[in-house]
Specification:
two-stranded antiparallel sheet; globular; alpha+beta
Length: 240
Amino acid sequence: MDQFSALLKSRAESLGAEYFGIADLTPAREFIEAQGGEIIAGFPRAVTMGIDLPDPLVDLLPVPGNRMGALLYHHNAYDVVNRELDRIALHLSDMLQQNGYRALPIAASLRTDESGICGPISHKLAANLAGIGWIGRSCLLVTPAHGPRVRFVTVLTDATLPPTGKPMDNRCNTCMACVETCPAGAFSGRAFDKDEPREARFDTAACERYLESRRIETGVAVCGMCLWVCPHGRNQGERG
């Protein structure tokens, strides 16, 4: 890691980031352009940052009919963590700009394509290319230490920063826990393949319908069972 990258990492960590990586986006330019357009695809690098979620918060998810748990999870895991991630991204974007580079912060949770149910760029893609984790059968980014219990934000830039890694080998092996647990039946069970569309693995419409049913029933559109059940994300006592 060069000196400027180290300064970016230090600033991100001082602001609360627990994960930091730099991705070379050029190998995925075609995919990125298809999702976000030419402006988004014009940035060759991404700075990716993450905050891991407290285990007790995630462990509220599987409790049947627990509206309080769903409210706590939604408030903290979405509202609070996303706000913190966006704050970190804005600070690093300013730092990059002050050093003469272009920088575009991409909000931690911002849907810009309703039909595709996606944002300007995949935060999971950036984190994967930065070597932070692999894409599981749930289409979530899985980290070795916290599994999928991490939320990410991305800053796109033209700064010539050296990548921090490359995509990790898939460590899901034969595990199908997320597929079998999904109440919407939204996952096909296929392992991640960068040359396949997301639709080969994930029925986003089925997931959306289930979340809407939860909103109607409990007032909170929260599920998260794929995140909760992943064995890579269990707390230290359960990991053995």
